[in-house]
């Protein structure tokens, strides 16, 4: 048997025992820590705490076990076994290095060693420590589980502070507690409020525990403007409960109206907010497909006050096809979100192949999320994101008046832009290499060529350009230019509205661009195209400086065309009204007559508030005695939705009603009424007429006879 | 060291040196002891008389001057020598030569008095009339920090925006807040270099209202005072809107005016004799007399110029507005009216910054179903509203300015009417972008300035304090005054004005329909002090003809004469042979 094997054999029981000892102490402690963590911070933390605790105890146990090594064995054998004769080290020494005597002794020891078993060397069980730790862990766990939670068990009453004078024989509120049990979906803990005023989540259950002295007979909770709530006796205390489905004011009435009136308390119900969704990427509402793109991952973030449902729906609208032949398909797919409940991220991956998305199509996506309100979750929709795959081929005009369907942004550049670019290039000339300079110049030349092509088509030019629209340089089309433009363009319901810029600029009178101009305009336009040609030539040869004068002249000609006449442009949309050709340009005006356009003033209504405002004041119209406030009360109830704080107004109203002579109450009510009044559009008061002298003066400076 | 003391010291030195000389002289040539004694006595006497000649002692000022102790007189005033000190009741518990219930009594007791010296903060209003009879010497105490002047707005219509102006004294770094009746801050400002400030608020329904002006120095509230506001409703003004073409500007003006309760007649020409809007009326002097206001665009103006100008002379209020860039003829005509139309194209209007939502929320009322609350947030895009280039004109004061202080509207009087030019184009865009309140404020400011005058009661800008005499004017006959608590008093006017003694703070109302606000006695102390101080400084100060006051030197000739006699005696004695040693 080799030395190593011998060592392992003799140390193994000791190591195992040491490991088990340490583990038996560490594991209960870890579980205890887990229980405390669960109680304080929830199950996630508890698992983490247990995992950390176990890992730690494992490491410590291993470390302790590792102490039982060869040196320990030699020491222990020498100490415990007299038959080892203090030379146990020889057992583990390399035989080759030993002298003859040592070898003899080693052989003797080897023969003797098995007289006892290795188990006898193992340390004892640490029974006391293990028992103590187990007891400690058990008590920690018991404490953690059994420690009373707030909102459980009988509430502790707080002394009441109603501020009413004690009257002999009349019950009075002396102690109070308001327990608030929020709806389960909010995940909020039950809490005890020592005050009778509280702000609670909408739908919370409220439980009042009240104590009166002397004991009351039939105490009530009087809801302002609602049914009173009877209290139920429970030993010394009185209990009532209701659900906070709206904000309300109430007062504790211990003595059925006898004695002084206690103050009002207010419960505000905080409504669950609608979740908020926003698009994180892409930022812009319209994205174009990049070459080679095979899928799209728009990302949304959804936040809510209590939590967003993990599953949301993604509405995908595909608009496939061009021109009039567009087919829409709409579908919804489920999307799972990631991240914490209050701030979830949704990043669906949309594969073009699966969806059937191809060139010339638009894909519009909208995320619909819900919060976890029960019973009816609230829904929120994200802004729509559009992914556009431009068609490789431009659609052609249909030949129908007003039915041209060219819906493409102007990608070509304007003449002004060409000039700006050329000037910028000239400025950078010194910094650019000759090749680069020439390339940049040629690229501007290409732009110039495209632009020239656009204008050439108005001349019936030979250019092979697609039927396109001119640039911003020529886009003028006024109201009142003598022809009918149809009704104001309605925003098209659908996608691409923001980019549909060309549709803003006009409408076609003729599908042939070249026939839309009169001869003078054509002549000017021809000059412009000629200049563009020259400019293009110089640009392509790398001489932007020479091209600039031509480009500028071209711009001037285009401006002239703009001012000279109108250019009728093709325009998108079939929404033009049918034009009655039989009546056009005939000069007949039957049916066109003066019309009376009725206008009715909007209805305003803060009458009761304004009347009460005057009555409570100290000026003309003030009422110094009790004021009839019923009309105001009814108005406040019916208009509660419009008022900033109808409840406070009701409370102040109640105070004035109960004590009409209370000046601070009247001031409070008046202040609140100010916030509940409309601001009418001003109607100026008349000026004061000048007196006789003033009139004479005014007439005199005017040069008239006095 | 004053010149008096220097002179006195010189004289004493001279006397000492002369005495030394006399003694030395006596030693060298002894003379009779009586002579030496006489010479030694005469020297200081002579010096004393010379000093009194130069600085005669103040004469007893019993006859013609008095010192008057008013509020804030230091307690040690009596200890200072001078004219007799008369204690008025405001001076409080200080001792003096005599007490008088008022200045008139004091002057009656001292009929010879021609000049009074007022100590302390100044005479009360009660004594000012009596003080007119004498010359008053008064050194005003330093100004009290606080609101030294406040101008509450007058004649406010329901819903109107109003401004409160005022001045702060000795508080350069203070902040002034305007609090609405609900206690919310509705405007805040810092005073300018001279302490002036203007704050804006909005009224609601008719009735009395008290806004609050609060002056803060850091977090410390220095002063807080009420801004009384009387909001009165008035009859619907009749408004004519003329436009040469239908357009959004007319549409929204008509909508605004209709909602505001104007009786609106709109005439929009659609060309070819077709008119849209209200039933067509002829535009001539007779029909225009039925309107209080007219809003006319440039093209309608060109068509109806004569009739409109004639009607303005008779009192019509006319607003001219450009419907876009105007042609040369209109430009010339409008310039001829006195408006400062410059050359050039339309320029964009610099809109004022949108206030923080907390502030702007207090300026709007609650919304209704038809008109929900309409707040523009600072993040919103500003609408594209432009204006004609307008420059300040001498004849036409500027009525509205945009945020860059460019004039936006000007007005001038023609006959009894007024004519205004609103340079804005497409102001309707404001109503579509959450600036409805600004649109309302602009047009209201325009129309209220030029509206046809009507005979009525003008609310006075009277500010009074409780327990202080108040003069009410414009009263033709004995009139009752109703106090805030409902008590009535009848006041008897003399030559149209009557005195009234308010004993409580709050709104008072006269039988003629005039309402005025009385501040509590302790309110606005700095303003009261400033008013009294100004009244004191307006009194006649003493002139050269008036006798100088208590420090006036007396006549010096008796001392000069005595000095001459004493000097002559001395000279004689020194020269005389009598008692000289040489005689021996």
Describe the structure.
Chain A has 706 residues and is of the alpha+beta class. Chain A contains 16 helices and 24 strands. In chain A, strands 1, 2, 3, 5, 8 and 9 form a six-stranded antiparallel beta sheet that branches. In chain A, strands 13, 16, 17, 20, 21 and 22 form a six-stranded mixed beta sheet that branches. In chain A, strands 4-11-10-6-7 form a five-stranded mixed beta sheet, covered by helices on one side. In chain A, a hairpin with an 8-residue loop joins strand 20 (361-370) and strand 21. In chain A, helix 1 (3-41) runs parallel beside helix 6, helix 8 (415-427) runs antiparallel to helix 9 and helix 14 packs antiparallel against helix 15 (663-674). Chain A is flat, with a radius of gyration of 46 Å. Chain B starts with a helix and ends in a 9-residue tail after the last helix. In chain B, helix 1 (3-28) packs antiparallel against helix 2 (33-54) and helix 2 (33-54) packs antiparallel against helix 14. The mean pLDDT of chain B is 85. Chain B is α/β, with parallel strands linked by helices and 584 residues long. The longest helix of chain B is centred in the first third of the chain and has 26 residues, at 3-28. In chain B, strand 11 and strand 12 (220-231) form a beta hairpin. Strand 23 (595-596) of chain A pairs parallel with strand 15 (275-277) of chain B, so a sheet runs across the interface.
Descriptors:
heterodimer, A: 706 residues, alpha+beta, 6-stranded antiparallel sheet, 6-stranded mixed sheet, 16 helices, 35% helix, B: 584 residues, alpha/beta, 8-stranded mixed sheet, 5-stranded parallel sheet, 14 helices, elongated
């Amino acid at each position: 048997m080799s030395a190593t094997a011998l060592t392992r054999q003799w140390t193994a029981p000791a190591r195992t025992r040491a490991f088990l000892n340490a583990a038996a102490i560490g594991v209960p402690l870890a579980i205890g820590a887990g229980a405390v963590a669960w109680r304080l911070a929830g199950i996630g933390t508890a698992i983490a705490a247990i995992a950390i605790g176990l890992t730690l105890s494992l490491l410590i146990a291993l470390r302790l076990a590792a102490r039982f090594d060869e040196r320990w064995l030699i020491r222990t054998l020498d100490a415990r076994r007299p038959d080892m004769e203090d030379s146990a080290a020889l057992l583990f020494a390399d035989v080759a290095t030993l002298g003859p005597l040592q070898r003899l002794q080693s052989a003797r020891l080897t023969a003797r060693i098995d007289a006892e078993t290795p188990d006898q060397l193992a340390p004892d069980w640490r029974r006391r420590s293990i028992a103590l730790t187990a007891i400690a862990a058990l008590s920690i766990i018991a404490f953690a589980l059994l420690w009373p939670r707030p909102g459980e068990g009988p509430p502790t009453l707080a002394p009441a502070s109603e501020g009413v004078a004690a009257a002999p024989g009349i019950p009075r509120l002396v102690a109070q507690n308001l327990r608030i049990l929020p709806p389960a979906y909010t995940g909020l803990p039950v809490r005890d409020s020592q005050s009778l005023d509280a702000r609670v989540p909408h739908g919370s259950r409220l439980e009042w525990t009240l104590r009166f002295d002397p004991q009351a007979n039939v105490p009530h909770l009087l809801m302002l403007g609602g049914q009173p709530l009877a209290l139920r006796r429970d030993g010394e205390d009185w209990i009532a409960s209701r659900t906070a489905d709206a904000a309300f004011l109430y007062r504790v009435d211990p003595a059925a109206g006898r004695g002084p009136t206690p103050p009002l308390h207010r419960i505000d119900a905080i409504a669950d907010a609608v979740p908020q969704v926003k698009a994180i990427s892409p930022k812009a509402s319209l994205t174009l497909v990049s070459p080679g793109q095979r899928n799209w991952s728009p990302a949304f973030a959804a936040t809510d006050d209590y939590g967003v449902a993990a599953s949301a729906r993604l509405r995908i609208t595909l608009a496939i096809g061009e021109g009039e032949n567009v087919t829409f398909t709409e579908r919804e797919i489920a999307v799972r979100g990631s991240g914490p409940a209050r701030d979830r991220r949704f990043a669906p991956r949309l594969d073009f192949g699966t969806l059937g998305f191809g060139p010339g199509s638009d894909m519009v996506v909208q995320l619909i999320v819900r919060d976890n309100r029960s019973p009816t979750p609230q829904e929120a929709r994200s802004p729509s994101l559009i992914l556009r795959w431009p068609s490789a081929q431009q659609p052609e005009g249909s030949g129908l008046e007003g039915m041209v369907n060219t819906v493409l942004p102007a990608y070509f550049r304007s003449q002004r832009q060409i000039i700006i670019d050329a000037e910028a290039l000239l400025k950078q000339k010194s910094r650019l290499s000759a090749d680069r300079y020439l390339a940049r110049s040629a690229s501007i030349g290409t732009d110039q060529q495209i632009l020239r092509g656009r204008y050439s088509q108005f001349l019936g030019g030979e250019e092979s350009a697609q039927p396109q629209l001119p640039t911003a340089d020529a886009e003028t089309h006024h109201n009142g230019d003598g022809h009918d433009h149809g009704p104001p363009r309605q925003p098209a319901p659908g996608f691409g509205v923001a980019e549909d810029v060309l549709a803003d600029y006009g409408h076609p009178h003729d599908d042939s661009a070249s026939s839309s101009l009169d001869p003078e305009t054509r002549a000017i336009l021809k000059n412009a195209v000629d200049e563009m040609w020259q400019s293009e030539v110089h640009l392509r040869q790398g001489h932007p400086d020479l091209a600039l004068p031509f480009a500028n002249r071209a711009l001037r000609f285009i401006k002239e065309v703009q001012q000279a006449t109108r250019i009728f442009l093709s325009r998108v949309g079939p929404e033009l009204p049918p034009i009655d050709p039989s009546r056009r340009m005939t000069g007949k005006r039957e049916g066109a007559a003066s019309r009376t356009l009725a206008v009715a003033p909007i209805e305003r209504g803060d009458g009761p508030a304004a009347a009460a405002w005057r009555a409570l004041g100290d000026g003309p119209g003030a009422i110094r005695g009790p004021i009839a406030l019923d009309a105001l009360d009814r108005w406040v109830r019916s208009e509660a939705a419009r008022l900033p704080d109808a409840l406070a107004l009701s409370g102040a109203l109640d105070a004035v009603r109960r004590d009409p002579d209370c000046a601070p109450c009247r001031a409070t009510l008046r202040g609140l009424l100010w916030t509940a009044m409309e601001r009418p559009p001003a109607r100026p008061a008349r000026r004061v007429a000048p007196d006789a002298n003033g009139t004479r003066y005014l007439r005199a400076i005017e040069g008239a006879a006095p | 060291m004053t010149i008096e003391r220097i002179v006195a010291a010189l004289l004493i030195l001279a006397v000492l040196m002369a005495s030394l000389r006399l003694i030395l002289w006596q030693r060298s040539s002894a003379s009779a002891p009586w002579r030496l004694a006489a010479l030694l006595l005469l020297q200081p006497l002579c010096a004393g008389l010379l000093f009194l000649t130069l600085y005669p002692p103040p004469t007893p000022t019993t006859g013609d001057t008095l010192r008057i102790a008013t509020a804030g007189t230091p307690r040690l005033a009596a200890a200072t020598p001078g004219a007799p000190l008369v204690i008025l009741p405001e001076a409080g518990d200080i001792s003096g030569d005599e007490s008088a219930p008022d200045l008139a009594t004091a002057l009656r007791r001292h009929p010879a008095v021609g000049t009074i010296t007022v100590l302390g903060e100044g005479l009360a209003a009660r004594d000012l009339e009596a003080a007119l009879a004498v010359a008053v010497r008064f050194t005003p105490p330093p100004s009290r920090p606080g609101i030294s002047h406040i101008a509450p707005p007058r004649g406010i219509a329901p819903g109107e925006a109003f401004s409160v102006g005022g001045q702060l004294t000795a508080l350069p770094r203070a902040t002034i807040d305007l609090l609405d009746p609900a206690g919310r801050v509705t405007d805040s400002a810092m005073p300018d270099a001279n302490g002036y400030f203007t704050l804006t608020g909005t009224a609601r329904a008719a009735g009395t209202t008290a806004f609050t002006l609060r002056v803060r120095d850091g977090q410390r509230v220095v002063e807080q005072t009420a801004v009384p506001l009387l909001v009165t409703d008035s009859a619907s003004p009749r408004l004519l809107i003329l436009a040469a073409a239908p357009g959004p500007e007319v549409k929204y003006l008509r909508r605004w005016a209709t909602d505001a309760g104007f009786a609106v007649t709109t005439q929009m020409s659609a060309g070819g004799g077709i008119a849209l809007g209200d039933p067509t009326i002829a535009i001539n002097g007779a029909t225009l007399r039925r309107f209080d206001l007219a809003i006319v665009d440039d093209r309608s103006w060109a068509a109806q110029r004569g009739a409109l100008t004639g009607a303005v002379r008779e009192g019509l209020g006319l607003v001219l507005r450009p419907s876009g860039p105007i042609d040369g003829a209109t430009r010339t005509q409008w310039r001829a009216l006195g408006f400062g139309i410059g050359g050039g194209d339309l320029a964009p209007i610099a809109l004022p910054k949108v206030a923080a939502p907390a502030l702007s929320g207090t300026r709007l009322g609650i919304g209704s179903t038809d008109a929900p609350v309409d707040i523009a947030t600072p993040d919103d895009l500003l609408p594209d509203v432009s204006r004609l280039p307008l420059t300040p004109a001498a004849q036409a004061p500027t009525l509205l300015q945009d945020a860059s202080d460019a004039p936006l509207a000007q007005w001038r009087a023609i006959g009894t009417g007024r004519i205004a030019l609103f340079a804005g184009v497409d102001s309707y865009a404001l109503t579509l972008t959450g600036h409805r309140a600004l649109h309302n404020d602009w047009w209201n400011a325009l129309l209220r300035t030029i509206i046809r005058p009507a005979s009525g009661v003008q609310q006075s800008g009277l500010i009074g304090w409780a327990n202080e005499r108040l003069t009410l004017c414009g009263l033709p006959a004995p009139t009752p005054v109703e106090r805030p608590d409902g008590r009535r008093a009848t006041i008897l006017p003399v030559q149209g004005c009557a005195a009234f003694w308010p004993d409580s703070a709050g709104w008072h109302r006269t039988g003629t329909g005039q309402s005025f606000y009385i501040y509590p006695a302790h309110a606005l102390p700095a303003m009261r002090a400033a008013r009294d101080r100004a009244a004191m400084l307006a009194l006649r100060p003493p002139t050269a003809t008036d006798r100088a006051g208590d420090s006036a030197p007396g006549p010096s000739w008796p001392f000069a004469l005595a000095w001459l006699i004493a000097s002559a005696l001395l000279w004689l004695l020194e020269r005389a042979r009598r008692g000289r040693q040489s005689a021996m």
